[in-house]
Amino acid sequence: MSNVQFLTAVIVGLSFALYIGIAIWSRVSTTGEFYIAGKHVHPLANGMATAADWMSAASFISMAGIISFGGYDGSVYLMGWTGGFVLLALLLAPYLRKFGKFTVPDFIGERYYSNTARQIGVLCAVIISFTYVAGQMRGVGVVFSRFLEINVDLGIVIGMIIVLFYATLGGMKGITYTQVTQYCVLIFAFMVPAIFISIMMTGNPIPQLGFGGSGADGVPLLAKLDGLHQQLGFDAYTNGSKSMTDVFCITLALMVGTAGLPHVIVRFFTVPKVKDARISAFYALLFIAILYTTAPAVAVFARTNLITSVEGKAYTELPSWFRTWEKTGLLAWVDKNEDGMIQYRKGAAIDGNKGKPIFLPDDIEGASGERLMKMSDDGEGAFNTATDNENELYVDRDIMVLANPEIAKLPDWVIALVAAGGLAAALSTAAGLLLVISSSVAHDMLRKWLMPNIGEKGELAAARIASVAAVIVAGYLGLNPPGFVAQVVALAFGLAASSFFPAIVLGIFRKRMNKEGALAGMMAGFLFTVGYICYFKFISPETNNADHWLFKISPEGIGAVGMVLNFVVALTIERFTPAPPENVQRLVEDIRVPIGSNEDVEG
Amino acid sequence: MSSDQDQQRAYWKANVRLVTILLSIWAFVSLGCGILFVEQLNQISMGGFKLGFWFAQQGSIIVFVCLIFIYVRQMNRLDKEYGVEEEDAE
To answer: What's the DSSP call for residue B35?
Structure first.
């Protein structure tokens, strides 16, 4: 075990011990505590917990890399995943807190006085959460394997045990306080390397300012990067390649989808007052914005640094980090023109095995000493082929965050910290999602529908059993990722945008909205969005391109259309059907004002 | 009772107006400046950034944080003004 690995194991181990300690300290004994932490969470703590809940393995490890390779196109994630919090804060959080129950399907069911509505809510919540959680478990495994060279599967199992411990024992209370700690770990781990790499590239310690700064040659970094991109045949970094309609729709779908994700919404049920729900939405976005404004800066630093340190250089003269990451398979070089120099151009360097490199045994080296890929069919499984463009370099986009500490020559403990940060990001999100699944099952399916006589103790036991089952299913999905997991993340956002968001907003802002309208709207949004995504992802993936898309909108952005459809259908049907009963109208009036938020919650 | 209801109705109106204004700004900076007018704004350069690009990757996020802050302050004021503030927790 190397020095770095030893440090990583120690730091990760310490962080896990801390999470388990919190779990034991925060054991709960009532469903109110299990589902919403008894509404005793301080707004500042809730803000941090929401930030950790929201920022997943993808935000921490992959986002900067996605932006780095997409340039302007990456803006959809930056604006989409933060803009949703404005909608959440202004349109949903305070009112749902005033409503004061346990889950999102709870609100849908009571506001639309219908068990069918509640069941549609449960179905959407469970689909969204499982889609999302599989990726988190995978993320845990990947971090373990990269930093500790532990097998991915073993990593997933370790992650499952940790989550199981604090989610099952402590429910929402345990999850909240571990998420607070996890936020601190992950933001520290993200910022330290970012600050150092900013100083290295621009002399400015604040990455957000360094982003617009210039290097030692006095040329603004972004202008320099645009120039490099054009020289090498890439699209200009600040322009991007997606159509404007598509960028618009994807951004909108991500914004609305973010606001409609049940694991985020439910966090606002945990604070004592309506006022606290508002201010904790502010804290949450503030804490998220620290990472989200840094990520695009990191993207530019890392991209510029990558191009200037490897392009046109002889392999033998490359900095040592290149070899380190070549070993992990995140970088690979194939010397197509056999000149011993690295040519980095637009296009994929290799083909076969879904574009990922497969290496020959380590003792076989190339002419310059590089790690060789398996470029011929030896009859034993997949192999790579060289593409016929000039690009010789394979770069996995995750490297942009993972390799930063090494590129910036930071000490080993920073590398260890990045590992702990990645795990914190993945585990905190996974726990939030698992709670949504277990509360949907125990509360909305059993207590409110199938077994109304289950009682408080029975419901709590059911919630615990459901969360154990959910962890096992999530772990299974992480261990055997169905090929479609990566593709259905669009589905989670599309579903949240086209089903939950309009139904909740109308339920608050339109008093006359009735069961018929809301149900028809949700069904229309749901079927349209799911149908469109499934058609292009599974039924007819070969036609998944701009020529066949409706209004040139990709499946990632279709949730925006689904949302509009939901609103239109709901408002039309509502016109021709009777107004909701008196007591429901009173409920709507009641959730619109903060006064009276402390009345006791009954399950 | 009925004056209470009037108060609450007026409170709701003021609330909806505030939300509408803030969401218009929200849409303008992100969907507007960051996407629809990005090419025009990119003609302008400020502090090493093309302006449209800056709005898309930094500016809109900063504005979002400010919007929620303003919302929280204004709503707390409205709560008091219309007498619908929450009583303190037990």
So the answer is: I
Burial class (CB in 10 A: 0-12, 13-18, 19+), A469: middle
Cβ neighbours of B72 in A, within 8 Å: 89, 278-279, 281-282
One-letter amino acid of A352: G
**Per-residue pLDDT tens over the stretch A108-149:** 988 999 888 888 888 888 888 888 887 788 788 878 877 777
Q: Report the largest interatomic distance among the alpha carbons of chain A, rounded to a whole angstrom.
A: 81
Q: Is residue A313 part of a domain?
A: no
Per DSSP, the three-state class of A394 is strand
3-state secondary structure of A235: coil
Q: Tell me the CB-side half-sphere exposure of residue A268, using CA atoms within 13 A.
A: 33
Total domain count, chain A: 2
- Taking CA atoms, A33 is separated from A170, A270, A430, A438, A578, in Å, by 8, 9, 19, 14, 38
Q: Give the tens place of pLDDT for each residue, A150-208.
A: 777 888 888 888 888 877 887 888 888 888 988 998 999 899 989 988 888 888 899 88
Query: CB B26 to CB A86 under 8 A?
Result: yes
CA-nearest residue to B6 within chain A is A589
Domain enclosing residue A348, as ranges: 331-397
Q: Where are the beta strands (DSSP E) in B1-90?
A: 45-46, 49-50
In a domain, A86, yes or no: yes
A577 falls within a domain: yes
Asked if A63 is an interface residue toward chain B (Cβ–Cβ < 8 A), one would say no
Task: Give the count of beta carbons closer than 10 Å to the beta carbon of residue A327.
Answer: 13
Select from B31, B58, B86 the Cβ nearest to the Cβ of A275: B86
**Can you tell me which residue has the tokens 């449960």?**
A122
Q: Which residue has the tokens 């909701």?
A: A580
Task: Determine the length of chain A.
Answer: 603
User: What pLDDT band is residue B67 in, cutting at 50, 70 and 90?
Assistant: very high
Tokens describing residue A235: 């699209």
A600 found inside a domain: no
Backbone angles phi, psi at A102, to 5 degrees: -100, -35
Helices marked H in A448-592: 455-479, 489-495, 501-509, 515-534, 558-575, 582-591
ipTM rounded to 2 decimals: 0.93
Q: Both A419 and A448 in a single domain?
A: yes
Q: Considering CB atoms only, which of B8, B48, B67 is closest to A220?
A: B48
The tens digit of pLDDT for each residue in A78-100 reads 999 999 999 999 999 899 888 88
Both A129 and A201 in a single domain?
Answer: yes
Closest CA to A67 of A305, A261, A285, A297: A297
For chain B, the residue count is 90
* Per-residue pLDDT tens over the stretch A363-390: 777 777 788 888 777 777 778 887 878 8
